[in-house]
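Everyone, carefully examine this protein record:
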Amino acid sequence: MEIDTDRIDDAVLALLLLGLHDVDRAWKGFDWDTLDRLHQEGMISNPIGKTKAVEFTEEGQRRAEELFRRLFEKASP
C-alpha cells in the first residue's frame, strides 16, 4: 500500500484544531473528549492515566485500518 502523506498531513493539521489554545498553539495529542468518545464506543482502552498510549480493541483496530485506507491510501494510476 502506498500512503498519501499529503492527505495525512492535511488530516493531522485539521485535527490539531481540537487542541487549540492561546490563539495559535495546539497540544500535540488528541482532544480528551474525542478519546473518551472512542473509549465509550469500544474502539480503544481507557485513555485516562499516565501512559501516553491507548490500546485498540479488536473492533477498533479493524475500523482504524478501514478508515486509514479509505482516507489516506493513494488511488492507483
About this structure: The helical segments are 5-16, 32-40, 58-72.
